[in-house]
Please model this.
Amino acid sequence: MRVVVAGGAGFLGSHLCDALIVRGDRVVCVDNYLTGRSANVDHLLDHESFEVLEADICNGVEVDGPVDAVMNLASPASPKDYYRLPIETLDVGSIGTRNLLELARARDARFFMASTSEVYGDPSIHPQTEEYWGNVNPIGLRSMYDEAKRFSEALTFAYHRRHGVAIRVVRIFNTYGPRMQPDDGRVVSNFITQALRGEALTIYGDGSQTRSFCYVEDEVRGFLALLDSGQSGPINIGNPGEFTMLELADLVNELTGNTAGIVFEPLPSDDPKQRKPDISLAEDLLGWSPVIDLRTGLERTIASFVAVLGV
Ligand code: NAD
Ligand code: UDP
Model:
């Protein structure tokens, strides 16, 4: 297949490009480096099956030659990034997604949409199944991201129903691993960076909120299982292991040998209190489940951060 990966120079997108190349697909990576880095795909540049197109998908996407699949991972994803880039986040989720859907429609290609567990907002059912419609504040601090992704999902289904575009919608739960930016503000990056610098880990709120962390290799394997399936989704892909932020901090301090402890900082508004995917659909329909536990994934991530930070 020849696959267009929008957001291919980002954290998840670059791992996806790697996995597609390894299995023999051809990749066109489209990115404007808003939150990603060309360094994430530098190692692929000499590969004959890999091309990079520097472009903002909000300005239209022109790709020469055949296109079999369009995968849309382009969007700021870390809360710190989308707070800073609210309009860009809404534009990429609406105009950008529409431009990629037009590309898929014109080429009769399948369209893969990277949605998020954030469509469930601060969920009142637990764990979250795909049937849950969510609890999102439409004007809250996270609204630019949550509503952009909800709009992207709606637009993707509209193109499917109206134009017959073959679609795959994945709802991604918190994913971590090498190539996360040390300063992206996400909890795993913050904790590891702080721990490696011998600083206290910053816990927002009382640390009782939960998240479920999936290692990037498992996550990308789930993307490919969905892409190759006949399923439209939405399908949750995430690791159902659920941890409080206090538990995560303890584990990071243990694995790094950091003795500086933790400090408490204010909890941002609309921060979801709990999050855990129900992955029954992924298990039953895709034969997918994660295999890398948090301790193993964190050890690998810490090793990569040691190299990047030079500590
Ligand atoms: P990231 O910020 O590392 O990657 C996003 C990429 O999109 C970056 O390379 C950025 O430069 C690019 N981009 C942004 N706007 C663009 C535009 N207008 N045109 C072209 N490129 C553009 O984030 P990530 O963690 O790799 O997330 C990738 C996707 O997965 C995002 O859509 C995100 O919403 C989704 N997702 C990620 C997670 C997670 O835990 N990492 C969870 C849920 C959903
Ligand atoms: N968080 C924290 N300390 C940090 C960064 C984040 O306690 O230094 C909390 C944050 O408030 C949230 C959880 O960790 O409750 C996950 O945050 P992240 O930004 O990684 O992802 P999201 O909130 O989008 O799930």
Remarks:
- The chain has a mean pLDDT of 97.
